[in-house]
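Quick one: co-fold with FE2/S2 (inorganic) cluster.
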Amino acid sequence: MPVILTINGQSIEARGGQSLFDYAESVGIDVPTSCRKQGKCKECMVEVVEGMDALSALAEPEQHLKGNFRLSCQTSVTASEGHVRCHTMRRGHMRIERHAFGLPLSNRAVELDPTVTRDGDRILIDGVEVERSTGPILGIAMDLGTTTVVLRLVDLETGELIADTSFENPQRFGGSEVMSRIAYDTEHPGRLLMRTLAGYLTHAIEKFPVDPKSIYEMVVVGNSTMRDLFFRQSVYSIGQNPYRSITEMEMAEGKRKTTSLVQSGLHSLLPIHPKARVYGAPIISGHVGADAAACMLAVDLAHEERLVAVMDIGTNTELIVGNRHRILAASCPAGPAFEGGSIACGMPALDGAIEAVEIAGDATFRLGVIGVPPEGICGSGLIDVLSELLRTGRMNDMGRFEDDVHRVRLWQGEGKDIFLLESDVNELAQAKGANVAGLHAVFSSYGIDFDDIEVFYLAGGFGRHLNVEASKRIGLVPSLASTKIVQAGNTAIEGATIALLSKAKRKELEDLAKRVEHCRLETHPSFFEFFVEGCQFKPVEPIPCAS
Ligand code: FES
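Sure, here it is.
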């Protein structure tokens, strides 16, 4: 019996000889590549989720890869039977929103005042001519996440959104969270992380329905590590106590006035106009990056009188609390569990993901699936299943299943089960513990209680889609009145877009970043206590004010 090879959900009999890339092509899968199977571009990566043993040994061009990643053009099936399941990095399929929700300010309301302007056929950046053309003047806003990359293409003369796209950050081969990427970048000279990402970005930009050379500006936001990797800065110091980026240290030494970065289109390795300006928004401090700064711009914190909180749950959760008078921010290294990483049947919110779960009266699982049939379970599904197991008494608040079982099956299909392991629950408990500890640390440092908050923004794609009541039950978000919770969507890309469209707002972003107080979780005296408490699956209780 030949090996059954399943790539991106499509199965084929693999009898050896051909590469995984060849097999993928034969069933019409568009494998990312710039070198046409030469082993040079490193873009054709696949993540192998089953059957690693059935594959050929790591070839020379793959020596940079860690874990279960392989270059599909260098890998063939060597076993004579079994099952290999793998997938390419996901492109253009991640679920993204075209705008944010419930914000006081949106890019559609921003007064257009871009840095790129036109004077007849002269195209100028800050008044300096960079091109002669009567073609469009376009810009890109990018949110460079540890797990997901989102791009918006905008007409800088009208503010109109022309296109958007998103894809899984291909740098995952260097680890799923920022500390592993820092270690990878330090141990592997040659900027492999940046170059691989640049290849994916190039393909994404070339797929936009415009001439890439008409893109004259790009605003990049992301956590400190992602942003600095993109700008080819050393990220080593971000991984070492006191966790400071090069720009932050240089600013402290008086060598620069801002932590923002600028490079030319040519230097960025992207196919945009060579004289385009690529602006990396300012980071705040330590791991609190440019994405958090962009969130602040999006929720209009510079003018906000009310006390608001922003929680962007992700591999690195960003937390911001404050108003125009005082702002405190923190970054929690929660890990990828709520994005489906490190969970046996976890996956991103793509076609095939179980995104909603209910346990019916007859104890059967009712599943909401993005497309059919189910392939795995994404973050919002994981929250639901934890909440439902808790509600029905099948799991206790310590995350132990009833009757000494260690695995709960959600779905059974032909040759495939989708299940939740007790060890998965443990991963989720720790991710939740980090998030909750961050919340408690930030609120106690600010000297307020959860009830003092007037608006609680749940930011990010994940925050947009999670079930708020289920999240309150398991204690991922505080038990606030639902009227105070706004599932705002991706505020980081919203902020990046606002900064792209308006010089005044970009200045506001720079000013905001400078006056935020950084709450360093690693030195908070009660962080560990908060973490242990937060690992339990029960509503987040208010804590007494303390600092
Ligand atoms: S196709 Fe370029 S490395 Fe495989």
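If it helps, Residues 33, 35, 37-44, 71, 73 surround FE2/S2 (inorganic) cluster (CB under 6 Å).
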